[in-house]
């Protein structure tokens, strides 16, 4: 089904030269450490903790409402250290998701209210179901689906869990999401 | 709409099952839609989903399809990760000196020198970050290396399993030899004059014996003797304290935990042991009719590419439901907006019909014929027929025509004419919109590159109740230019193909 248009008011969103659309109602700590590589949508209520370590996203990412992007940390004998976080292209992060992964590949779908524990690795073309909880240091490899029950299913060539053409599907989905995320038309006066 | 929601538009596969287009494949050789049920699933490569290591299939078999380095938690089946701890170790550098003079030993012991200071050493244990189980819980000693040195728990019946396996391997070998021998005797020799001795191979063995050579027979497999299993009625009696001791369920394993450790299936939590992580596979899919690959992924576990990819959405026009013009009401005419996309490099002519054309099968017949000839060539060779051995993959799966189960409860108004869907051109995306206005049929709302939005009129059945789902179905006939063809001149051929499409338009409103 075609994605319905989502309208935003001109006052709420800032649009950058590279096409990023960032809501003003977000908490972007340490904004000098946050790199959004173009055509990224950051919706209202999202929190990106750039003050802990740098966060870098690819193109056509969607960071939905009330999601939290928090760089991962590792505990050492002398304290803890935060690590930078990389997010690939065409990544969708659902509403209310808390993401503390070390690396998120490209074409990744993260469902609503999913919790990604610290230092997880999400490879390209994987799916995290709505409400799934990933324990720390989990690896989800390509074409795998992490279910809300905590199991990993799928694999490349298995058509039942992750679509075989996940790459094209996610690229289409994030692109059309961006195209349908439009400014409210000015009232005709 | 969410990415995860099921699509309202479903295509009928050639086997009659309805699927969204992203679960379908398109066999260019048949040329038909194929779903997960009408393809052969084959193992392409083995890999560990945790350490992402590619493991060749022979090695995978040798390692019992388990990863050598990764372990699963016996408690919650999540992956274990190695934790490092520092353990103080007293370095004994002074020992040879101390052995020389006993007096020095006495004086040295109470005042530790700097060289005898305890240094630290890294030790590793496995820990589950999901349920906090550690190898220390069950008393497995820490290891000096993070991976590779974890001891395997020997299965109680390992010796028995090994002898059984050895035995059955010899049985298989023996049967194979007997069969070969049988075939050799049975197969008619291409001699002009039949000879009796040739049939038994008697002359050959006679001559060999006269020369003094050994018999040219295959080495006889040595027979392994196994003792047959015996059923015994002796069961340990229940201990008396099972009735008196309060049961602590925290110490008892769950069914899932026991099944994950099939060798001994422990009942006590203290006997859980890290289990080697089982490998995952990449699959390649093959059309069962013509045995051509539909999907062939690359070997490397981290690669997301395909060497062969025949997704339906790259060959069949994609239909996307945009919306219905009015709220759905029983018996009232309505219109639905549908977006058609041409994914191919050739223009397509599309017509929407309300019933499949009766002669639709004819076009595909030439391909079917070609497949059949190939199949018969394999199965009709006389030698194979006589021996009953088929070298080819079992191709007995005849296509079962299943009636499409979906019932439509709306009547569509067929479009008055067919329309052309332009070819895909990725550079069009960056072009300015300078399309000359051309005469379009009335039902086309807009046209942009390879996409067309059209308006299809329909009316839900009058007897529908509020809340009922409205399903409309139609048959989409489209021209498809096939670049692979069985014809000798490698010209692309054009087919008129059709697929049946069903759309869940929504519910009837009050």
TrEMBL record, chain A:
InterPro entries linked: DCTN5, Trimer_LpxA-like_sf
Keywords from the named record: Cytoplasm, Cytoskeleton
GO cellular component, one term: dynactin complex
Domain of life: Eukaryota
Main location: cytoplasm
Listed Pfam families: DCTN5
UniProt keyword Cytoplasm present: yes
Annotated localization: Cytoplasm, Cytoskeleton
PANTHER family named among the record's database cross-references: DYNACTIN SUBUNIT 5 (PTHR46126)
Family: Belongs to the dynactin subunits 5/6 family. Dynactin subunit 5 subfamily.
Listed name of the protein: Dynactin subunit 5
Source species: Drosophila rubida
Species lineage: Eukaryota, Metazoa, Ecdysozoa, Arthropoda, Hexapoda
From TrEMBL, chain B:
Basic and acidic residues bias: start-end ranges: 91-100
Protein name, per record: Dynactin subunit 4
Subunit record text: Subunit of dynactin, a multiprotein complex part of a tripartite complex with dynein and a adapter, such as BICDL1, BICD2 or HOOK3. The dynactin complex is built around ACTR1A/ACTB filament and consists of an actin-related filament composed of a shoulder domain, a pointed end and a barbed end. Its length is defined by its flexible shoulder domain. The soulder is composed of 2 DCTN1 subunits, 4 DCTN2 and 2 DCTN3. The 4 DCNT2 (via N-terminus) bind the ACTR1A filament and act as molecular rulers to determine the length. The pointed end is important for binding dynein-dynactin cargo adapters.
Entry-linked Pfam families: Dynactin_p62
Organism listed in the record: Drosophila rubida
Subcellular location(s) per record: Cytoplasm, Cell cortex; Cytoplasm, Cytoskeleton, Microtubule organizing center, Centrosome; Cytoplasm, Cytoskeleton, Stress fiber; Cytoplasm, Myofibril
Stretches for region Disordered: 91-115
Keywords, sorted A to Z: Acetylation, Coiled coil, Cytoplasm, Cytoskeleton, Isopeptide bond, Phosphoprotein, Ubl conjugation
Annotated GO CC locations: cell cortex; centrosome; dynactin complex; myofibril; stress fiber
PANTHER family assigned to the protein according to its UniProt record, in alphabetical order: DYNACTIN P62 SUBUNIT, DYNACTIN SUBUNIT 4
Keyword DNA damage tagged: no
Family, similarity comment: Belongs to the dynactin subunit 4 family.
């Amino acid at each position: 089904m075609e994605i319905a248009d989502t309208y935003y008011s001109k006052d709420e969103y800032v649009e950058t030269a590279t096409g990023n659309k960032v809501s003003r109602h977000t908490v972007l700590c340490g904004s000098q450490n946050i790199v959004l590589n173009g055509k990224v949508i950051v919706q209202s209520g999202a929190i990106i903790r750039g003050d802990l370590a740098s966060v870098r996203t690819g193109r056509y990412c969607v960071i939905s409402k009330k999601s939290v992007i928090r760089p991962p940390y590792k505990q050492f004998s002398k304290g803890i250290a935060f690590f930078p976080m990389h997010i690939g292209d065409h990544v969708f992060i659902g509403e209310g998701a808390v993401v503390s992964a070390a690396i998120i590949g490209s074409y990744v779908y993260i469902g609503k209210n999913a919790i990604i524990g610290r230092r997880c690795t999400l490879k390209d073309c994987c799916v995290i179901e709505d409400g799934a909880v990933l324990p720390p240091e989990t690896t989800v490899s390509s074409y795998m689906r992490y279910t809300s029950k905590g199991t990993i299913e799928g694999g490349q060539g298995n058509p039942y869990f992750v679509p075989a053409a996940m790459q094209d599907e996610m690229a289409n989905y994030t692109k059309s999401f961006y195209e349908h995320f439009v400014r409210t038309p000015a009232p005709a006066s | 709409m969410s990415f995860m929601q099921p699509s309202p538009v479903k295509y009928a596969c050639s086997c009659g099952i309805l699927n969204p287009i992203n679960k379908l494949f398109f066999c260019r050789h048949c040329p038909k839609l194929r779903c997960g049920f009408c393809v052969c699933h084959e193992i392409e490569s083995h890999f560990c989903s945790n350490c992402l290591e590619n493991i060749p299939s022979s090695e995978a078999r040798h390692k019992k399809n388990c990863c050598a380095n990764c372990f699963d938690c016996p408690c919650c089946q999540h992956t274990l990760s190695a934790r490092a701890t520092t353990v103080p170790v007293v370095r004994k550098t002074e020992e040879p000196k101390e052995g020389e003079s006993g007096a020095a030993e006495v004086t040295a012991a109470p005042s530790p020198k700097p060289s005898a200071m305890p240094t630290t050493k890294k030790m590793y244990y496995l820990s589950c970050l999901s349920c906090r189980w550690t190898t220390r819980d069950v008393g497995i000693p820490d290891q000096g290396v993070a991976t590779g040195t974890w001891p395997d728990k020997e299965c109680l019946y390992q010796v028995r399993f090994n002898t059984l396996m050895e035995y059955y391997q010899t049985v298989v070998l023996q049967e194979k030899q007997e069969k070969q021998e049988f075939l050799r005797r049975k197969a008619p020799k291409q001699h002009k004059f039949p000879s009796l001795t040739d049939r038994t191979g008697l002359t050959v063995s006679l001559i060999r014996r006269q020369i003094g050579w050994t018999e040219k027979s295959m080495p006889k497999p040595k027979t392994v003797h196994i003792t047959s299993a015996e059923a015994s009625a002796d069961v340990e009696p229940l201990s008396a304290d099972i009735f008196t001791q309060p049961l602590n369920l925290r110490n008892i394993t769950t069914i899932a935990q026991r099944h994950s450790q099939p060798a001994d299936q422990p009942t006590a939590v203290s006997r859980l042991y890290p289990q080697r992580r089982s490998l995952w596979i990449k699959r390649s899919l093959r059309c069962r009719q013509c045995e051509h690959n539909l999907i062939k992924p690359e070997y490397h576990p981290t690669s997301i590419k395909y060497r062969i990819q025949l997704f339906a959405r790259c060959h069949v026009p994609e239909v996307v439901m945009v919306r219905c013009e009015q709220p759905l009401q029983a018996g009232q005419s309505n219109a639905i907006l549908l977006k058609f996309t041409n994914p191919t490099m050739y223009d397509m002519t599309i017509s929407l019909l309300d019933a499949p054309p009766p002669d639709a099968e004819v076009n595909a017949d030439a391909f079917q014929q070609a497949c059949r000839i190939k199949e018969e060539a394999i199965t009709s060779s006389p030698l194979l027929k006589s021996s009953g051995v088929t070298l080819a993959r079992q191709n007995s799966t005849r296509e079962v025509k299943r009636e499409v189960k979906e019932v439509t409860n709306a009547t569509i108004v067929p479009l008055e004419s067919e329309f052309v869907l332009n070819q895909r051109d990725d550079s069009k995306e960056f072009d300015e919109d300078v399309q000359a206005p051309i005469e379009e049929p009335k039902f086309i709302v807009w046209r942009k590159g390879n996409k067309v939005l059209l308006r299809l009129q329909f009316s839900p059945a009058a007897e529908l109740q509020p809340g009922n789902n409205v399903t409309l179905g139609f048959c989409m006939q489209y021209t498809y230019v096939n670049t692979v063809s069985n014809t000798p001149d490698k010209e692309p051929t054009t087919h008129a193909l059709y697929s049946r499409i069903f759309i869940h338009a929504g519910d009837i409103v009050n």
